[in-house]
Write a structure and sequence with these properties.
two-stranded antiparallel sheet; mainly alpha; 2 strands
């Protein structure tokens, strides 16, 4: 769609249009989510069905790297009114990703094995999942999606339950499988969602920017 003939939307603080650049950002945001979700789903499937082996650990490490890249891309292009919240989620992603990278570079064990043998390492990597939970919370708040409403509490329950040994291995596997399935449902529905709602009310972003400029 040509920018010159884009429809005009009425926002809370004035009119705005959606440009090709806006649409491109939404598509990149969704592509990042798709990469993260598919990597997580495949990794979960392998973890739950394959016999432990060096090849499995290598595959899971690669899939986590792809998950982290996809999540980082999504957090770069996501539209969130509160800039501070946006930056906090990006910081969480950076902490989680750098923790994983540090483990891969400094530990002799593969990433999944190191986490299994040393559960506290999950605290650092858990920041990435906290960032993902932030995306699900935002999506649940904005679009009232049932899968994101379930994912928002499920992720911290699973991670904290594992760290505190409150969950049985069987229950952990079930919750992990539910997480993967709901994540895939989420990205599937996201791909067919109209683009404008993902951008939000651009007049709000403009007003917040104006207020920030005046405060300087």
């Amino acid at each position: 769609m040509n920018d010159a003939i884009s429809p005009i939307y009425q926002g809370q603080f004035g009119e705005f249009t959606i440009t090709e650049g806006d649409r491109r950002e939404v598509m990149i945001y969704r592509a990042g989510l798709a990469l993260a979700g598919l990597s997580f789903g495949l990794g979960t499937l392998l973890l739950l069905t394959q016999t432990p082996s060096p090849l499995l650990w290598q595959s899971l490490t690669l899939l986590f790297a792809l998950f982290s890249i996809g999540l980082g891309v999504s957090l770069w292009y996501i539209h969130i009114y509160l800039k501070l919240l946006h930056r906090v989620l990006q910081l969480f992603w950076a902490i989680g990703s750098l923790t994983a990278l540090g483990i891969m570079l400094r530990w002799s064990e593969p990433l999944p094995v190191a986490i299994a043998h040393h559960p506290p390492l999950l605290i650092g990597i858990g920041f990435s999942f906290a960032a993902l939970t932030g995306i699900f919370f935002k999506e649940a708040f904005c679009f009232n999606r049932p899968e994101t409403k379930l994912l928002t509490p499920l992720i911290p329950i699973l991670i904290l339950g594992h760290l505190l040994t409150l969950l049985t291995p069987t229950l952990e596997q079930i919750l992990l499988g539910v997480w993967a399935v709901l994540f895939l449902i989420f990205i599937g529905r996201k791909m067919i969602q109209p683009i404008p709602p993902d951008l939000g009310d651009k007049s709000v972003f403009a007003e917040l920017h104006r207020q920030a400029q005046q405060a300087r």
